[in-house]
Structures are given as C-alpha cells and as structure tokens.
Amino acid sequence: MTLIGRTRVRGVETLSLDAPERRNALSAALVGELAGALTDAGRDTGVRAVVLTHTGNTFSAGADLRDPPAPEALVGLLRQLVELPRPVVARVTGHVRAGGLGLLGACDIAVASHAATFAFTEVRIGVAPAVISLPLLPRADPRALARYFLTGERLDTAEAARTGLITAAGEDVDEVLAPILDGLRRSAPEALAETKRLLTARVLETFDRDAAGLTALSARLFSSATAREGMTAFLERRDPEWVV
C-alpha cells in the first residue's frame, strides 16, 4: 500500500500524504516512505521544487499512536525537509495537529486554505512538542508558541499566519500557491539552493545543538505512565485522569 502520492508538473514534484483513513497520522511506515520520496526528489535534477500536501480533510493528525515512528526517524525527516536542496512548499486544505505542525515548520513556505485549523495537542495527551520544536522555535513567534504549546488551543489560519506557523492563507489555496510556484520556476536552481542554505542556517544550528536531547526527552515522555493514560483516554474518547 502506497502512503505517499507522487505527481510532477513543470518541474514541481507534489508529494501527497495519502492515508486519509488514519488522518495522515505519522506512522513509522508513512515517515519512512516520505523520507524515501524526498531523497528521490533531492537527487533528481528535473525537480525544481517540492509541494507537500495531503488527501482527505486532515493534513496530518500528528504521530500515529498505534504505530509511532521512532523519535530519531522523525528528527531525520524534519532535518531532511530543511536540508533538501529544493524549496519545499506545504499546501494545506485541512486540519494540522501536533507532529503535522513539525512538517509545516520544516517546509520553506506553507500556504493554507481558510478551512485549515492548527493545534499543538501534545500536552493534552501527556507529552511535549519536543522534536517538532526543532524547526518551529527558530521560525515562529516565541510568545505565540508559548501560549499554544502550553494550552493546546486551536488556531485558525489568520492566527497561524500572524504567528509564523504558515506563510499565507486564502479561500482558494491554489490561487495563493500559483504565484509562489511561478516564482520558483523562474528562479535559477543553483541560486535557489544557495538561498535556501542562507535561510535555514539558524534552523540547522538548532538541530545540531538540541536534536539529541529532544529526541531523548520525546522517548522518555512517550514511554511514561502519564502518556499511556493520555493516549488511552484519547483512543477511548474520554478526558484523561488529570483533567479538573
């Protein structure tokens, strides 16, 4: 079963998260297949840019609680998006939760339709947005991240754009996307690669400095009794025991 759709139009490779029945949750299999597709796109000189999108009404619900990827694998995927020698543009027309926001943070540009919603739901199941903070902390508004990391509140597209979680939004996401892709197609590939290196230098410094510690933190939290209660409550559609 293929979990990543691939199409190409005029040098733009579109990779679609294609597990809508699981809300495109980041399973070990999906993370591995997406990493492979990105490797192929990075090696192919015919690819000028990558669009990362989805099928169904959810871009990604975050980690698959039944088959989660190893924290090291998710770190590797996020770093791969940041380091890819092609611009990566996220195209979002649905909901984004938890680890899905890490994917957005690792993309160079993110556009969304007004139907999209966003939330860092980790604290509500007893864990922390540890690994996904690697691309987000250097790029998004720190005061906004403090609020939404700590509360798990839902954001609309206007707030997501204001805080730097996305680049732009509109009623028709493809109308927003069209001039961006046109600009990328008109740009020299070598110049795009060097410009991306300039833009991602601080993000990669964060990976170099913090990835090992945050990977260990994520593994510890996900194996805790608190996380087991939170995940069980989520799957049983009830409040966890700590809710007052």
Helix and strand topology:
Elements: E1 4-9, E2 12-17, H1 28-43, E3 49-54, E4 58-60, H2 71-83, E5 88-92, E6 95-97, H3 99-106, E7 109-113, E8 117-119, H4 133-136, H5 142-151, E9 154-155, H6 157-163, E10 168-170, H7 173-185, H8 189-222, H9 225-235
Parallel strand pairs: 2-3, 3-5, 4-6, 5-7, 6-8, 7-10
Antiparallel strand pairs: 1-2, 8-9
Helix pairs in contact: 1-2, 2-8
Describe the structure.
The chain contains nine helices and ten strands. The mean pLDDT is 97. It has helices spanning 28-43, 71-83, 99-106, 133-136, 142-151, 157-163, 173-185, 189-222, 225-235, and strands spanning 4-9, 12-17, 49-54, 58-60, 88-92, 95-97, 109-113, 117-119, 154-155, 168-170. The protein has a six-stranded mixed β-sheet, with helices on both faces. The chain is 48% helix and 17% strand. Helix 1 packs parallel to helix 2 (71-83). Belongs to the enoyl-CoA hydratase/isomerase family. Pfam families: ECH_1.
In short:
This protein has 244 residues and is α/β, with parallel strands linked by helices. Helix content is 48%, strand content 17%.
Determine the structural class based on helices, strands and strand pairing: alpha/beta
What is the residue-mean pLDDT, rounded to a whole number?
97
Query: From the coordinates shown, what is the CATH architecture of the domain at 4-173?
Result: Alpha-Beta Complex
Can you count the helices?
9
Strand order of the largest sheet: 1-2-3-5-7-10
By CATH reckoning, the class of the domain at 4-173 would read Alpha Beta
Q: What would the CATH topology of the domain at 4-173 be?
A: 2-enoyl-CoA Hydratase, Chain A, domain 1
How much of the sequence is in beta strands? 15-25%
Radius of gyration, taken over Cα atoms and rounded to an integer in Å: 17 Å
Q: How far is it from the N-terminal to the C-terminal residue, by CA?
A: 43 Å
CATH homologous superfamily of the domain at 4-173, by name? 2-enoyl-CoA Hydratase, Chain A, domain 1
Number of strands: 10
Helix content: 40-55%
